[in-house]
Amino acid sequence: MVLVDRDLPQMDVDRVLADNYKGAQDLVHYLATLGHRRIGMIGANVRRLSSFKDGIAKAGLEFDPKLEVVIEKPSFEMAVAATRKLLKRAHPPTAIMAENDLLAVGVLNGALRTGLHIPDDLSVTGFDDVPLAAYIFPELTTVSQPYDLMAERATQCLLSRIIDSRMTPVSEILPTRVVVRHSTGPAQKR
Q1: Pick among 3.30.360.10, 3.40.50.10420, 3.60.40.10, 3.40.50.2300: CATH of 19-145+174-179
Q2: What would the mean pLDDT of 92-102 be, rounded to a whole number?
Q3: What span, in angstroms and rounded, lies between the C-alpha atoms of 44 and 46?
Q4: Which of 18, 39, 54, 135 could anchor a disulfide with 145, C-beta 3.0 to 4.6 Å?
Q5: 3-state SS string over 5-68?
Q6: The whole model's pTM is what?
Q7: What is the mean pLDDT of the chain?
Q8: How far is CA 169 from CA 2, 9, 19, 122, 150, in A?
Q9: What residues have CB less than 8 Å from 145, skipping those under 6 apart?
Q10: Are 158 and 83 a contacting pair, CB within 8 Å?
Q11: pLDDT at 106 over 80
Q12: What confidence score (pLDDT) does residue 5 get?
């Protein structure tokens, strides 16, 4: 068995993972360089949300728990509702990071429905770089995972395991990268 993009540390198996932690850190750093200080987060994946929080601290920003919305059952509709909730805050975020691209599309929709202009009024980011991210309007800034390379390495690992089933399990973490598109821009003074 080879785990791909899912880590179950309690299992003694081969795994090929994307460096989601560094990807989240890089995304926060990018937003901070644009002047964003109030960054909202929407998602359900505890690890990814934790990575975002660590990135906020590493960027020298203060984490505001009122700018985090944890969704129990992630969906487009839940992301729209979470966005509206964040934007009604007394001090709303200037940027919102969604844990994945599907939720980010919901964030875009929720922000546009409240009359905001993306990225002039609010920057929005996703994670995963699914094909849709490049085709929505505005195109989504996101973190790209090396899916083709992950599949290649997982296949190599599986073939090696077939040849020698007693080999020590391997864990490979592959780099991610921030893909800057049109859904992000400099923070507006509020």
Answers
A1: 3.40.50.2300
A2: 96
A3: 6
A4: 18
A5: CCCCCCCCCEEEEECHHHHHHHHHHHHHHCCCCCEEEEECCHHHHHHHHHHHHHCCCCCCHHHE
A6: 0.92
A7: 94
A8: 9, 12, 18, 44, 16
A9: 5, 18, 20, 23, 128, 129, 174, 176
A10: no
A11: yes
A12: 84
Q: Identify the pLDDT of residue 190.
A: 60
Q: What is the pLDDT at residue 185?
A: 98
Largest CA distance in the chain: 61
pLDDT in tens, 3-55: 998 888 788 899 999 999 999 999 999 999 999 999 999 998 888 888 999 99
Distance CA 129, CA 32 (A): 20
Cα–Cα distance, 66 to 167 (Å, whole number): 48
Residue keyed to tokens 């973490």 = 173
Place of tokens 């490979």: 172
